[in-house]
Design brief:
The protein is an alpha/beta fold and 76 residues long. It has one domain. Strands 1-2-3 form a three-stranded parallel beta sheet, covered by helices on one side. α1 links the parallel β1 and β2. The chain is globular. The protein starts with a strand and ends in an 11-residue tail after the last strand. The model has no long low-confidence stretch (mean pLDDT 88). InterPro entries: Pept_S33_TAP-like_C (IPR013595). This is Peptidase S33 tripeptidyl aminopeptidase-like C-terminal domain-containing protein. Pfam families: Abhydrolase_4.
């Protein structure tokens, strides 16, 4: 399982895509966040990571997750 943030300022998303290809049998889970660390920003991602590490259940390929809250919410 590889987690890639679409807008990671420290690790470009293409690195996640390349890592997934190089591993061969890995599944890439994409997260639509503007941060370096996506874990903790999405309950769904947390569940996928837990299922992978604890239950050895790989996530479905091609997932694009949204964070539970916006990083920069609109100012009213």
């Amino acid at each position: 399982m590889v987690v890639g943030n679409l807008y990671d300022p420290a690790t470009n998303y293409t690195f996640s895509q390349r890592m997934q290809r190089q591993l061969g049998n890995a599944v890439l889970v994409s997260v639509d966040v503007v941060e370096h660390c996506a874990v903790g920003r999405s309950k769904e991602l947390g569940q996928l990571v837990t299922d992978y590490l604890v239950n050895q259940k790989a996530p479905a390929p091609g997932q694009l997750l949204k964070p539970d809250a916006e990083a920069f919410p609109p100012v009213a």
